UniProtKB/TrEMBL annotation, chain A:
It holds the Pfam family ArsP_1. The lineage of its organism: Bacteria, Bacillati, Bacillota, Clostridia, Eubacteriales. It comes from Alkalibaculum sporogenes. Signal peptide: none annotated. Gene3D superfamilies: P-loop containing nucleotide triphosphate hydrolases. This is Permease. The chain crosses the membrane at residues 199-218, 230-257, 269-295, 307-330, 336-357, 410-429, 435-454, 466-485, 505-523. Belongs to the UPF0718 family. Keywords: Cell membrane, Membrane, Transmembrane, Transmembrane helix. It is found in: Cell membrane. SUPFAM superfamilies: P-loop containing nucleoside triphosphate hydrolases. GO terms for cellular component: plasma membrane.
Automatic annotation (TrEMBL), chain B:
This is TIGR03943 family protein. Pfam families: DUF1980, DUF1980_C. Keywords: Membrane, Transmembrane, Transmembrane helix. PANTHER family: UPF0703 PROTEIN YCGQ. Residues 115-127 have a biased composition (Basic and acidic residues). The keyword Membrane applies.
Length: 526, 272
């Protein structure tokens, strides 16, 4: 029987010892025999009041220089006291990565005696944001590996919300407690963890079962499940290669392009920056699935937001593949091709300018200000510190994998919603169209392009199929707005950006695209 | 620094399984040609690309298989697992009968009710798209053409090519006898009493844009032809008219002389 090990992590002065003092000295725990191993000595001293705790301390110096000695010392203690111990609690050092502790306890001499069960991270709400920005990887890594985060000094709800979002960015789905909620924490602390692998296979079986059971039932109600599945798979099969291109490209920017190059080389003026963005958009034959990860990495790398937005909105409309497919779809009608490209460029310029004039308040990236420093892939090595090419390639692969899953889950959800809408929704739009004026028609087509979430390289054909009941202006609204923004793009953006920013972006894009198309077509310019 | 301890990492193992399975699935879809039920042939290189990247990723994670990790996650794998499962679980390709009015392809049909119900037929949409394509790719002589007897026999594989060729060079083929197979598409509100469309399902990008397209046929007795039934039509080719946007356009049509039932044709016609 291996002894359960519980770990408390947190930066210096975050209140780890205080936490242990309160927790382990509870009256109802007085019969539990506990070994406390401290790897840090702070101002506060752990004191056992019920006499049930034994304490060993290791200074940081020993930890750094003679980890073997620590292992054998712990081993020796456990060998001699095995029958007398119920739990081991560890107060880990705030500036040493958690993985080192883990390696020690996975050492063959300890592995079968004790096992790390849960880790609790203690954070001081007053300075955690500040610390994360300055202290490098160890703290991030500790948070990412924790099962619970306990927050101290939470004074205002706003701070709590912000920190919560920050922590969730580092460790998605982690349980966060206020230090006052001790009782809730106790309950959770000793609950058995479901094994994620078992959970995975259970979910797998569940999906298959749902598929087999529910499909016939839905079909009885005349819901064309088969069609939805086909459309869904079609969109996925089409989008995944482009998503891959997108994450590879964006990871390459993240890993291989040093920050300093961008800071030095990229045009300082926003106007010129936007021109460069549009040129770059033209050169990248990617559709909207790819432009969103690239957009995110550009923002992270510190490209001015208006420029990055111009790039994201322009590239799916004006790239060569899209131009060519529009040309084919509209039987070589150059007016439409030129119209689409021109309107796309005008609209993305204006959208960029709107964001230049009225920059969004607060943090744009959902990880708060820190998002620039860390990457979402669980590799906490500082990108700039890895210098060997081999190391960078390895990081590049890890990074792109993490990003693929990160954005991919939104792609799957978005594609599914879009495929359901495709089956049920389009009839609504065409019905609404009858007798509508130009303005309304444009809006209908724009909403439809949003809902259908077609890949920008294929939407021209679909637009063409609506050209019989919608005026040309409305078709143009579809062609210009659709690639910039749709359900699946909103989903993918929410993997990295704050909801408020996405909302503003969506709203601005819609208004600008509508205005541009309406003015040019309504006044008969085109 | 101490030496790295080894311990099995289940998360990496799951990821490895997913990457390998997805790469395998891509290769299977390509080699069996099944991907054509979802996307057009021009996606093939992209699917190879996907398979290669997934393969590289699978190899890349092998090195981390025994790197211990405290917090194991598994749910992210469903990004790949869900598509894999849906591909493997039984589901049929879309057939002609799926094109009722509430489907996007069917919409091109529904539209026309509001329009002047002249013979503004949906087949004028896609084929005209293709015309330009094939002017560039330039197909010199299409199979099935018999200039001596002024006869065209359209095989199912060449349906798309012939459709565009006929639209492009209507004059050249006027008066020819044409034999082609397709399914019947009738819509009383759009077509005249004696008209139907001989169509195939055409895919321009992926199943999401699948739509019927074909040639308009005139026949005295259309009443016993049922929607979605496959037939082979023999008839004379002539240039009719349709109205779009207030203008009249020439439209290739068939004066049907003989109709025989035919086997349903699997698969779709691809634009490019």
């Amino acid at each position: 029987m291996s002894i359960p090990v519980y770990v408390v992590t947190g930066f210096l002065d975050s209140g780890k010892t205080t936490f242990l003092n309160i927790l382990l000295n509870r009256r109802d725990w007085k019969d539990i025999r506990i070994l406390i191993i401290q790897f840090e000595t702070g101002e506060e001293v752990f004191q056992s009041q019920n006499g049930n705790c034994h304490k060993i301390s290791f200074p940081k110096k020993v930890l750094e220089q003679q980890p073997k000695q620590i292992i054998s010392q712990i081993n020796g203690y456990l060998q001699s006291h095995e029958e007398e111990l119920d739990e081991i609690w560890i107060e880990w050092n705030g500036v040493v990565p958690f993985s080192e502790l883990q390696s020690m306890f996975l050492d063959p001499s300890l592995r079968f005696l004790c096992k790390i069960q849960k880790t609790v991270h203690i954070a001081d709400a007053a300075n955690i944001e500040n610390l994360l920005g300055r202290t490098g990887g160890a703290l991030l890594e500790q948070i990412a590996n924790s099962d619970f985060v306990v927050l101290r000094n939470v004074s205002v709800a706003v701070t709590y919300k912000r920190i919560r979002r920050l922590l969730n960015g580092i460790n998605p789905g982690v349980d966060i407690y206020d230090i006052k909620e001790y009782d809730d924490l106790y309950k959770q602390l000793f609950r058995k963890k479901e094994n994620p692998v078992n959970f995975f296979f259970a979910a797998l079986v569940f999906i298959v079962a749902i598929h087999i059971m529910v499909k016939p039932i839905l079909e009885i109600f005349q819901i064309p499940v088969n069609t939805i599945i086909n459309v869904f798979l079609g969109i996925i099969l089409q989008a995944i290669p482009f998503l891959l291109i997108g994450v590879l490209l964006s990871s390459a920017i993240q890993v291989f392009v040093p920050q300093s190059v961008i800071e030095r080389r990229f045009p300082k003026s926003i106007g010129i920056g936007m021109l460069v963005a549009i040129l770059a958009g033209f050169c990248l034959p990617v559709c909207d699935c790819a432009s969103i990860p690239v957009f995110r990495s550009l923002v992270k790398k510190g490209i001015p937001l208006p420029v990055a937005i111009t790039f994201m909105t322009a590239s799916p409309v004006i790239n060569p593949v899209v131009i060519l497919s529009t040309y084919y779809a509209f039987s070589g009608d150059l007016n439409i091709v030129i119209g689409r490209v021109a309107l796309g460029i005008i609209a993305s310029f204006i959208i960029g300018f709107v964001f230049a004039i009225r920059p969004p308040k607060g943090h744009v990236l959902s990880g708060g200000g820190l998002d620039r420093l860390m990457c979402s892939c669980g590799c906490y090595e500082d990108i700039e510190s890895i210098t060997t090419f081999k190391g960078k390639v390895r990081l590049f692969i890890r990074h792109s994998q993490a990003e693929f899953f990160n954005v991919g889950k939104y792609l799957v959800i978005g594609s599914f919603v879009a495929s359901v809408f495709q089956i049920f929704g389009t009839g609504l739009f065409t019905t609404a169209q009858s007798g509508a004026g130009l303005a309304l028609s444009i809006i209908i087509m724009m909403v439809m392009s949003f809902v259908l979430s077609l890949c920008s390289s294929s939407d021209a054909i679909v637009a063409r199929s609506f050209s019989m009941q919608f005026p040309m202006g409305a078709i143009m609204g579809f062609l210009v707005f659709g690639p910039m923004m749709d359900i699946k793009n909103v989903m993918m953006l929410s993997s990295g950006f704050s909801k408020r920013f996405i909302g503003k972006l969506l709203y601005t894009m819609f208004i600008v695209c509508f205005a541009v198309v309406f003015i040019l077509y309504g006044l008969g310019v085109m | 620094m101490q030496t790295r301890v080894k311990a099995f990492n289940p998360q990496i193992f799951l990821e490895f399984l997913c990457y390998s399975a997805f790469a395998g699935l891509m290769l299977y879809l390509i080699s069996s040609g099944k991907y054509l039920s979802y996307v057009t042939p021009r996606m093939e290189p992209y699917l190879y690309f996907t398979a290669i990247i997934m393969g590289i990723w699978a190899l890349a994670v092998l090195g981390r298989m025994f790197r211990p990790q405290h917090k194991v996650r598994s749910m992210h794998c469903f990004v790949l697992v869900i598509p894999i499962l849906l591909f493997l679980l039984p589901h049929g390709p879309l057939s002609t009968s799926d094109f009722s009015d509430n489907f996007i392809g069917g919409n091109t049909f529904a539209n026309r009710r509001e329009q002047n119900s002249n013979d503004l037929s949906l087949e004028d949409r896609s084929p005209t798209d293709t015309t330009n394509l094939y002017t560039q790719t330039n197909v010199p002589e299409l199979p099935g053409l018999d200039t001596v007897n002024k006869k065209i026999t359209v095989s199912n594989d060449d349906f798309g090519k012939w459709l565009s060729e006929i639209h492009m060079n209507m004059e050249k083929y006027e008066g020819y006898t044409i034999i082609m197979t397709g399914f019947v598409l009738k819509n009383s509100e759009v077509l005249e009493e004696d008209e139907f469309i001989l169509a195939h399902l055409i895919m321009s990008c992926c199943v999401a844009d699948l739509a019927p397209a074909g040639l308009l046929c005139k026949h005295d007795d259309v009443s016993d032809l049922k929607n979605d039934t496959w037939i082979t039509v023999e008839g004379t080719f002539f240039i009719g008219q349709y109205e779009y946007d207030g203008k009249n356009y020439d439209d290739p049509q068939i004066n049907v002389t003989n109709i025989t039932p035919a086997e349903a044709v699997e698969g779709y016609v691809y634009l490019y």
